[in-house]
Amino acid sequence: MDTKELIKKVRKIEIKTRRLSDHIFSGEYHTSFKGRGMTFSEVRQYQFGDDIRAIDWNVTARYNEPYVKVFEEERELTMMLMVDISGSESFGTKNQLKKDVVTEIAATLAFSATQNNDKIGLMLFSDQIELYIPPKKGRSHVLRIIRELIEFEAKSNKTDLAQALKFLSGTQKKKAIVFLISDFMSENYDQTLKIASKKHDITGIRVYDSREEKMPNLGVVSMLDAETGKTHLINTGSKTTRLNYEKYYNENVKYFKETFSKSGAGVVNTRVDESYVTKLLGYFKSR
Questions:
Q1: Residues in Cβ contact with 137 at an 8 Å cutoff, skipping those fewer than 6 apart
Q2: CA-to-CA distance for 56 and 64, rounded, in angstroms?
Q3: Rounded to the nearest 5°, which phi and psi values hold at 65?
């Protein structure tokens, strides 16, 4: 992609996503996540109306009367965008590929954080960490993130969510608002998610295509596995084959939802032909 075309694409995405973040998401984002970044201030005696979850049991036991921990809201938060750029993200049967929708979602969230004067960082991953941009503020920084989302080419087509979450835990020492954007066609990340969720406020945004949910009956067809690069002849006319595929897909989605739920992390599901605006807005309001 030449520089002119890249600048044009970046500008197009900025205009669309900035409008959304300015008029729709900035207030919702701030309301949803304010108070999530808290620093310890002091311990004081319990007062009527205090949240019992704030009780400091050690101090309470020492003085034989209830004391609570007081926290102050951090004015500035840190948002980390963790974006899956493995081979499966290049799939799409509607107007857009999954990776195009992922880019728009990431850009919208980044501009929303900018409105709140927060820092934004980016991690692009496959089965390895492809690119890491440390959190910073400002429009030029967000535009750099959008450029990388558009033109960065992964070295690997495979996916390893556990590796990405491990990297997050190792690099982000302070609490961050984390959006993990992927199709979540991966397994065995429950333990690393559990560890990362203890420190960070994590939301998994699953972007998928309707054609991934069920295998159509097209007879014997040649199919390319985007993550392994191998081509297989598949008899889609076989009911057993279609049912096995559907079962595998549903188990994968179930694993994603249950794993995030058990870890106390948020979940958003959006299909490429649906309005991710509606989905994100609904999620923010539900918080």
A1: 114, 117, 118, 119, 120
A2: 12
A3: -150, 150
